[in-house]
Amino acid sequence: MSTPPSILIFAGSSRVNSFNRKLAKEAARLVRDAGARPTYIELQDLNIPLYNADLEARGTPRDVIRLKELMHGHAGWIIASPEYNGSYTALLKNTIDWASSPAIAGAECSALEADTWKNGTKPFTGKVVGLLSASPGGLGGLRSLDHLAPLLRNLHCWLAPQQFALGKAADAFDAQGHLKDASAEAKVKAVVNEVIFGASRLAQL
Ligand SMILES: Cc1cc2nc3c(=O)[nH]c(=O)nc-3n(C[C@H](O)[C@H](O)[C@H](O)COP(=O)(O)O)c2cc1C
After folding, report:
1. Ligand 1 within 6 A of CB of 83
2. The pLDDT of residue 19 is above 70
3. Which of 37, 68, 138, 176 has its CA 20 to 30 A from that of 60?
């Protein structure tokens, strides 16, 4: 039997009571329940500045290399994306921009690392990505996914056919952070299952 795929999970919010962080944690639980290997990360734990090409020219920051390694080291990802003004957040954009920029040697990035990560799309190519969103509004942040999906395709990711936008998110979780509604959980599970399926199949190629 082949090894169950590793799935990287993160949310595009650093807010303490973020609905998207809760949704991402639910996805991580469902990945584990399905027998695959989840890695849940908090983007705010990475010491990544606002992207600036002049800063980058002095050398790619250490945690950007760490992020590239993390992304590349997982067969699939699940992203829970908040919606700000009809799109995804600056945190998510900044993270993806750094991750997709060719590495440059400097104080925090060796020449070998810069060579390893000279292709900006390397961390993204062939990753199977499941998209989730959550918002207090009725559409659940769906419009953020409409912007995020083409960005990821442009970076050579494979998007899971199903996605899920959780509306009325302020009422959706219990005190333990679990989804109250079984049908909402089933929709997250459908995305999780597709990511696991796709990641397993692509890994066999
Ligand atoms: C600048 C800004 C713009 C927002 N625009 C939208 C929007 O277009 N659609 C929406 O559903 N919610 C919007 N919201 C509300 C967010 O969905 C809400 O703050 C949500 O809790 C953010 O996700 P989080 O809970 O994971 O941090 C916006 C919030 C902010 C701060």
Report:
1. yes
2. yes
3. 37
